[in-house]
Amino acid sequence: MEIRPILSTLSRHKTAAALIVLEIALSCAIICNALFIVSQRIDAMQLASGIDDNQLIEIGLRGIGKQVNADARTAEDLASLRGIPGVENVAIVNQLPFQGGSWNTSLSASADPDAQSINGAQYMIGENAIKTLGVKLIAGRDFNADEYQSSDVLEKVEDLGKLNAPAILTEAMAKQFFPDGNAVGKTLYMANIPVTVVGVAQTLLRPNMQDNNRTHSVIFPIRMNFSNGGRYILRVTEPGRRDEVLTQALATLEKNDPNRLVRSKLTVEEKRATYFANDRDMIGLLLIVSGLLLLVTALGIIGLASFWVQQRTKQIGIRRALGATRAQILRYFQTENFLLASIGIVVGMLLAYLLNQWLMGRYELPRLPLLYLPVGALALWLLGQIAVFGPARRAAAIPPAVATRSA
Predict the structure, then answer these.
(1) In contact, 221 and 33? CB cutoff 8 Å
(2) For residue 109, what are the contacts with CB-CB under 8 A and spacing of at least 6?
(3) Region 202-212: what's the mean pLDDT?
(4) Is 45's pLDDT higher than 60?
(5) Which residues partner with 184 through β-bridges?
(6) What is the C-alpha separation between 216 and 174, in angstroms, rounded?
(7) Residue 13 scores a pLDDT above 80
(8) Given 22, 62, 77, 105, which is the most exposed site by the fewest CB atoms within 10 A?
(9) Alpha carbon separation from 307 to 29, 130, 183, 219, 263 (Å, rounded)
(10) pTM
């Protein structure tokens, strides 16, 4: 089909054509970035935490008034919780993945204050925590029994420089320091404190995103207590018993010491669901907005095409009288729409890139992968062809004689 007549016709309807091009361009820019944000949120929600989410319960307590011996009370609590039917393991940790705040630290390959450091989540755990959480070690070992220390060590600033602390790194963090993968036995530094890597965990996500990173974590064998940030983690024998075990655990802790407040009591699955609640809402909102935007664009194309069919009744009739087939009339309007959509998509791709640059600077969003541009283009081309098909069929169905008399 000749393109020149189509371009000539469009040149006589510059304003209407420009509005459709602008509408398609804006749709392309917004939808490409919206779908990218949706995919980012879905990927984050599906990340493996590195722990057995469906078998774990978290209970956090807060003491009322001064605690005389919180370490002893914590040991008593752990022993009592282990005796509850349905409990496989119990441990105390300072934090878990999927929470608002977090403990963090920085490690470097040298004690030099100017040495480049890498920030990671600072997990501090008591005995049996690796087994309780279900953290998988891919190199090295778990902590030995004599390596665990009371959280009192954190208050002895004068002794920290003499401490050679064992640590377990996540694989992602270990590879930052040792790209060859041989991290076990190596020494890193937390300020001037030497840290010996004794093991590497496959995954243990950070509690929340820090510096656009979720995977850098370091684990220390430092035993917290219930009053200084420690929380009890119970591993149940069967996921279906979590509610039952939680009820019994709260009753047991109340019996041990009624002068405490419960600050958290939930399964880790619930914790994860709560953490990503805003992401789910955002996904839903962006999908609704994208759907409405596509609907508005389709209605605009249908409206313009219908208007042009009415305006060109005589032109269509003359072409039919000269021998043009219905298929040729149909292709004419589809080709016209394809040209307008193509111009709009080219402009939209540029706008999509500019919008992504703004989002990168404002919200630390990653760079928009090029894959989303052809996907968005294909969706809008298809939408345009579907939207124009109805008006184009009506145009192709106009009999030559009726079209001529209407002139």
Answers:
(1) no
(2) 115, 116, 177, 188, 189
(3) 91
(4) yes
(5) none
(6) 8
(7) no
(8) 62
(9) 27, 69, 70, 68, 64
(10) 0.80
